[in-house]
């Protein structure tokens, strides 16, 4: 079997702002499996739901483990509007999961056995840069595609200075 060729030096082919969501959980009490297992299993279901409908705006994701207790996902979105629309859509799993958590909290059934968190970022063009050396597409490049480094600049300061046609027009 032959492996796919691995490109040399590349950068993410992002045009415009980059929207990134970090979302995760922490198991506070391992013995409370009935509290944390549903939270752990909810994320892969949501990701499958989003992968089935590309129009929802999820461009890519990376599943990560920070410790035996902490798991999270880095997600890349087309826009903050699409992220908000998914999060608040009553017919999607995210909304249903949060409604269930809120009901449990109001009923006093949440006992801090599992922690939940998220951070959302809208990173304006010119405020991010990336480099991948002998790597298949990963992270931002997997979400937006990748281009040879020379197209955006060999140095970080050059990649930060890159502007898409739309970005150059705005800065104009």
Chain-wise SSE layout:
Layout: E1 9-12, E2 18-27, H1 33-52, E3 58-65, E4 70-77, H2 80-88, H3 93-106, E5 114-123, E6 132-133, H4 140-144, E7 146-148, H5 156-161, H6 165-171
Antiparallel strand pairs: 1-6, 1-7, 2-4, 2-5, 3-4
Sheet with most strands: 4 strands, antiparallel
Distance between the termini: 51 Å
Class derived from helix and strand content: alpha+beta
Instruction: Give the rounded overall mean pLDDT.
Output: 90
Number of strands: 7
Put simply, the count of helices is 6
Beta content comes to 25-35%
Low confidence ranges = none
Residue share in helix: 25-40%
Element order, helices and strands?
A: EEHEEHHEEHEHH
Strand order of the largest sheet: 3-4-2-5
Shape: elongated
Q: Which value, in Å, is the CA radius of gyration?
A: 19 Å
Describe the structure.
The protein is an alpha+beta fold and 172 residues long. Helices cover 35% and strands 26% of the residues. It has six helices and seven strands, in the order E-E-H-E-E-H-H-E-E-H-E-H-H. The protein has helices at residues 33-52, 80-88, 93-106, 140-144, 156-161, 165-171; strands spanning 9-12, 18-27, 58-65, 70-77, 114-123, 132-133, 146-148. The strands form two sheets. A four-stranded antiparallel sheet has the order 3-4-2-5. Strands 6-1-7 form a three-stranded antiparallel sheet. The longest helix is centred in the first third of the chain and has 20 residues, at 33-52. The radius of gyration is 19 Å and the shape is elongated. The mean pLDDT is 90.
